[in-house]
UniProtKB/TrEMBL annotation:
Residues 49-90 form the Mechanosensitive ion channel transmembrane helices 2/3 domain. It is found in: Cell inner membrane; Cell membrane. The chain crosses the membrane at residues 45-64, 76-105. Mechanosensitive channel that participates in the regulation of osmotic pressure changes within the cell, opening in response to stretch forces in the membrane lipid bilayer, without the need for other proteins. Contributes to normal resistance to hypoosmotic shock. Forms an ion channel of 1.0 nanosiemens conductance with a slight preference for anions. Gene3D superfamilies: 1.10.287.1260, 2.30.30.60, 3.30.70.100. This is Small-conductance mechanosensitive channel. Residues 92-157 form the Mechanosensitive ion channel MscS domain. Belongs to the MscS (TC 1.A.23) family. Homoheptamer.
Length: 278
């Protein structure tokens, strides 16, 4: 009896040792594959721990079963506990799953400028639970990964180039051809404006008080804001020098005085004499 029990215990310990070694090897292999694929190191570390824990659970269950411990009830208890924990952490687990998906599919990377759920900023960090953005006015925004993965993601840095969409109005009495020529000259003199694809300058709209020109040059994504401010100032100064007006909206208010109101006003200015009392 003692020898039989000792033999089962020895086999269980052997299962634990060999299983631990195999579990680590498999988990390390998964981590190496992700590293070679260029995955985020945080994702590799997370999956390493996840695979290791799952395999060790199988190994421990096998070892306990070998020494005669009833594992059916143990597995049922662990399953019930896992279900309860899963329901309690439903929101957190959804963020965790979304974080894994973000690291696998990589819709954006650290350092890129994105807009998520109406918030625009530079990506600072992507963890398993949250994504941190830094806004242009130096505010840090922390978004749960469940919201990030479930909302529209606009990546302004993914393509390397962006198109400026400027709208400048000129007066109806100004020469449209002259204004377009001035704008094209300014675009050609700006070294940060890309030659390919070529810039587009055309009449966009005949508005109430102006003829609106659409100015659409292409620039590198990192130079978007600086080129925009430079071009707007240059266009304003060159239009002033060339006598091209940039009108502002005007509204004309016409007051109509009712005829009864005029009569009442005239009666108030020339009051009739009071009637004599009897």
């Amino acid at each position: 009896m003692v020898f039989a029990w000792s033999g089962r215990l020895l086999i269980a310990l052997l299962i634990l040792l060999v299983g631990w070694w195999l579990a680590r090897r498999v988990a390390m292999a998964v981590q190496r594959v992700l590293a070679r694929a260029g995955a985020d190191p945080l994702l590799g570390h997370f999956l390493y721990n996840l695979v290791l824990v799952l395999l060790l659970a199988v190994v421990v269950t096998g070892a306990l079963d070998r020494i005669g411990v009833p594992t059916a009830s143990l597995l049922a208890a662990l399953g019930a506990a896992g279900l309860a924990i899963g329901l309690a952490l439903q929101g957190s687990l959804s963020h965790l799953a979304a974080g894994v998906l973000l690291m696998v599919f990589r819709p954006f990377r650290v350092g890129q400028y994105v807009e998520i759920a109406g918030v625009g900023g530079t990506v600072q960090d992507v963890s398993l639970m949250h994504t941190r953005l830094l806004t242009p006015d130096n505010r840090e925004v922390v978004l749960p990964n469940g919201k990030v993965a479930g909302d529209a993601i606009v990546n302004y840095s993914a393509r390397g180039t962006r198109r400026l969409d400027l709208v400048v109005g000129i007066g109806y009495g100004d020469d449209i051809g002259k204004a377009i020529a001035v704008v094209r000259e300014l675009l050609g003199a700006e070294p940060r404006v890309l030659a390919d694809p070529p810039a587009d300058v055309a009449v966009m709209q005949l508005a109430d008080s102006s003829v609106n020109l659409a100015i659409r040059p292409w620039v590198k994504s990192g130079e978007y804001w600086s080129v925009q401010t430079t071009l707007l100032r240059a266009i304003k100064e060159r239009f002033d020098a060339q006598g091209i007006s940039i009108p502002v909206p005007r509204r004309e208010v016409v007051l109509h005085v009712a005829r009864d109101a005029s009569a009442l006003a005239n009666g108030a200015s020339n009051p009739s004499p009071p009637k004599p009392s009897p």
